[in-house]
Amino acid sequence: MAEVKPSREEAFSLLKKYNKNEGLIKHALAVEAVLRYCARKRGQDEEKWGVIGLIHDLDYEQFPEQHCRKTEEILVCENWPKEYIRAVVSHGWGICTDVEPQNDLEKVLYAVDELTGLIAATALVRPSKSVMDMKAKSVKKKWKDKSFAAGVNRDIIEKGAEMLGMEVSELITDVIMGMRDVAEEIGLRGNPDVSG
Ligand SMILES: [Fe+2]
Ligand SMILES: [Fe+2]
Predict the structure, then answer these.
(1) Could you tell me the distance, in angstroms and rounded to a whole number, from the CA of residue 92 to the centre of ligand 2?
(2) How far apart are CA 172 and CA 136, in angstroms?
(3) Percent of the chain predicted with pLDDT > 90
């Protein structure tokens, strides 16, 4: 059977079929938005980047022990294109797979995945509870405090930025910009009028 390019709608219903946890859905939407932003910035295929971002943690709720491997299995059954599957699996490089990110899309996914978590956590402790008025500087402050959002692996983000030839602050700004596009949906619109 020929591989068909999955639509955003198909990807989202597949995501919801395997994930009921609201936090995981929000994470998927955040990563999707960031990938879309980065694709636009690079003149790349926004739909493709977005769909891959949306589906990247498909198996995480039900099969955390088989993370990435189970997603691969599901997407093969769903007849997804090989390049989409490879991109999704490569975000677990060095953690749960040995598929190394090679192209820009894969490197961006690898670099921004953990960063969306750090940015969300940083937004929630700000007076505005918002990403709308947030700057990279606030995230860099929290970056140094290893006990803050301790689950976020800073080494992976650094490695990802290095792969892309970017400064971490530049990467942080891109992630903030992407997350702003879905601030409402991911619960990070907050109240930017509240300053502090
Ligand atoms: Fe993951
Ligand atoms: Fe993720």
Answers:
(1) 9
(2) 6
(3) 95
